[in-house]
């Protein structure tokens, strides 16, 4: 019996050793779908259809109006006339007793495009964790429309919250799958990692495609806040069209609460939602030493209070770690500038897009590398964040299937498929992460992991 027990123990040790070894090895998914890029959905597709009624408000979307969610900025477009800038809101759909006054603007792009009347109004003095109903449109010169949202809970160390993670969405049939699948996941808010409409992929940066995109995503973003990161497709820098102001369509349409976090530009800012402190950086604005973004991040990291918001999440567009040949090492200069700061701050997760595939890394850093010492291989670092590339929302440019071989040690899982992810924060120590592949119209969880907090429970795995 002793010999038999010893044999069983030996088998168990071998199996555990194999599993441990396998856990250290990265996985490149063998799943394959057509890599053919799909065009954008036709401009008369039902998901782009304007709402009924004369001059009806459309493209309704909300985002935080302050750092924590006691204010919410509502934006909408009236296509024909400016109409009222007032948002009516309250705790019941049939009792909208409060009002918020806003402003409107218009912009032109190139010689052919003039926007509708873009309205922005911020609702203030809201209660945490409360459902509000709201309406836009006067009913006189614009048909009124009604929506609702729930404010985030008051920030606290063990407040649960579920983020959707979406990047590089665009407006193809794949994009529609991604948005439908996210809606089925029941997230509370979206961290959007850049590249919204891909209007610049159309001749003349056709800004009508900004309008179709906003009508397409209204079914989600009118009901919950999306936190915006800018990508390269938001630049819309087109000197050949006489357009030399970067981010012009984006900044006219999509406000951010940058002033509340002491930022000087709407492209970089922070929010505190439930138990997460979310920092948004701009890959396509200056970030070198002593620039406004550099100075802001230096101060912002000192303002993070892990006793109140233990989860530190950073959003960029161009990845700092990616083993895909597409856009390879384009984020390297930003990594060199800021990685040591994030490791010192014990950031939990860095989210990126840009590369049109999915990849999740181990907790690695390359902070020892100084270009002269030759130490250029990323190494495991329990204080480092997990890097997630989620630039696979479904855009017009197609998938990036050019993974480099051999798969680097820092890469845990990678796959050239469209999809979205969710990050469900449970408490100050644990969060559950899933990546949902768009599997030919069916939502499939293809990758998942438990993350442990770097400040409160820094384990050696996730």
From TrEMBL:
A GO MF term: acid phosphatase activity
A Pfam family annotated for this UniProt entry: Pur_ac_phosph_N
Keywords tagged on the record: Glycoprotein, Hydrolase, Iron, Metal-binding, Signal, Zinc
Secretion signal span: 1-25
Residue span(s) of domain Fibronectin type-III: 56-154
EC code(s) of this entry: 3.1.3.2
Coiled-coil region list: none
Catalysis: reaction(s): a phosphate monoester + H2O = an alcohol + phosphate
InterPro entries referenced in this protein's UniProt entry, alphabetically: Calcineurin-like_PHP, FN3_dom, Metallo-depent_PP-like, MPP_PAP, PAPs-like, PAPs_C, PAPs_N, Purple_acid_Pase-like_N
Keyword Hydrolase: yes
Sequence similarity: Belongs to the metallophosphoesterase superfamily. Purple acid phosphatase family.
PANTHER family, sorted: ACID PHOSPHATASE RELATED, PURPLE ACID PHOSPHATASE
Protein name: Purple acid phosphatase
């Amino acid at each position: 019996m002793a010999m038999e027990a010893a044999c069983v123990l030996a088998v168990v040790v071998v199996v555990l050793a194999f599993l441990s070894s396998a856990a250290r090895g990265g996985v490149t998914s063998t799943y394959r779908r057509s890599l053919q890029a799909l065009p954008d959905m036709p401009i008369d597709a039902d998901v782009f259809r304007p709402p009924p009624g004369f001059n009806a408000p459309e493209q309704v979307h909300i985002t935080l109006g302050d750092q924590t969610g006691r204010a919410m900025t509502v934006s909408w477009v009236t296509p024909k006339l400016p109409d009222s800038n007032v948002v009516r809101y309250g705790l019941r759909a049939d009792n909208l007793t409060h009002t918020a006054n806003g402003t409107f603007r218009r912009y032109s792009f190139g010689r052919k495009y003039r926007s509708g009347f873009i309205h922005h109004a911020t609702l203030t003095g809201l209660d945490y964790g409360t459902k509000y109903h709201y309406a836009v449109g006067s009913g006189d010169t614009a048909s009124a429309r009604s929506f609702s949202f729930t404010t985030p809970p008051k920030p606290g160390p063990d407040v649960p919250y579920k983020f959707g993670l979406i990047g590089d969405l665009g407006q193809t049939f794949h994009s529609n799958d991604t948005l439908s699948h996210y809606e089925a996941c029941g997230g509370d808010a979206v961290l959007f990692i850049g590249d919204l409409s891909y209007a610049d992929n159309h001749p003349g940066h056709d800004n009508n495609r900004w309008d179709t995109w906003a009508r397409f995503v209204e079914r989600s973003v009118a009901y919950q806040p999306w936190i915006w990161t800018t990508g390269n497709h938001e630049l819309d820098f087109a000197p050949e069209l006489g357009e030399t102001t970067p981010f012009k369509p984006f900044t006219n349409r999509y406000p951010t609460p940058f002033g509340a976090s002491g930022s000087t530009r709407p492209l970089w800012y922070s929010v505190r939602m439930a138990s997460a402190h979310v920092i948004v950086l701009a890959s396509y604005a200056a970030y070198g030493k002593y620039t406004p973004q550099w100075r802001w991040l230096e101060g912002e990291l000192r303002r993070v209070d892990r006793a109140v918001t233990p989860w530190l999440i950073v959003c960029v567009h161009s990845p700092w770690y990616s083993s895909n040949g597409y856009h390879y090492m384009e984020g390297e200069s930003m990594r060199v500038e800021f990685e040591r700061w994030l490791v010192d701050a014990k950031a939990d997760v860095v989210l990126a897009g840009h590369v049109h595939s999915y990849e999740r890394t181990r907790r690695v850093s390359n902070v020892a590398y100084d270009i002269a010492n030759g130490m250029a291989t990323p190494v495991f670092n329990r204080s480092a964040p997990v890097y997630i590339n989620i630039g696979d929302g479904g855009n017009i440019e197609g998938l990036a299937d050019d993974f480099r071989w051999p798969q680097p040690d820092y890469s845990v899982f990678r796959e050239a498929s469209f999809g979205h992810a969710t990050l469900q924060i449970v408490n100050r120590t644990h969060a559950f992460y899933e990546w949902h592949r768009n599997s030919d119209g069916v939502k499939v969880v293809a990758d998942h992991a438990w993350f442990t907090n770097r400040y409160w429970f820094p384990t050696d795995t996730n």
